[in-house]
Amino acid sequence: MTIRWDKKGRMIFLKPYKVKVHNIQFSFPKGFKSDGASIPWYAQWFGDPYDGDTLDGALVHDGLYGQQGHCILGGTEIVLPRLNVDNIFRGIMGWQHVNPFKKWIYWAMVRMFGWMPWHISPLINKWFLKHKKSGIMIRIIIK
Predict the structure, then answer these.
(1) DSSP secondary-structure letter at 43?
(2) Which of 47, 62, 73, 96 is deepest in the core (most CB within 10 A)?
(3) Whole-angstrom Cα distance, residue 11 to residue 32?
(4) Helix ranges restricted to H, the chain
């Protein structure tokens, strides 16, 4: 993973990046930004936003939230509902053997508070708005 950090503490991909979970691959383009698991500073005693066991799930979750569920699946643009995006996050953490209690807490937090970024992400995510027309979005490949 080749990244740099911006002034807000987010990671920015300098090269395309792929998250592989079993037979599913999520591809992120160069320039993708993420704040990891989006844990507020006062709750970081519970988990590091860039913790290795939750990072891949957080990246996929951030990417799909930033695009409000829009992604490319098998060459076709689809829109995943927020519940499905949250369940993908939980599923990836399960596949990566995250502690069940931690997995449930992270999932419960995105279910309770995720509606806010879900609705404002497209308004503030200039990258997505700029690249949506050119088709440079997160790609999901099932092999």
Answers:
(1) G
(2) 62
(3) 8
(4) 52-66, 82-95, 100-113, 115-124, 126-131
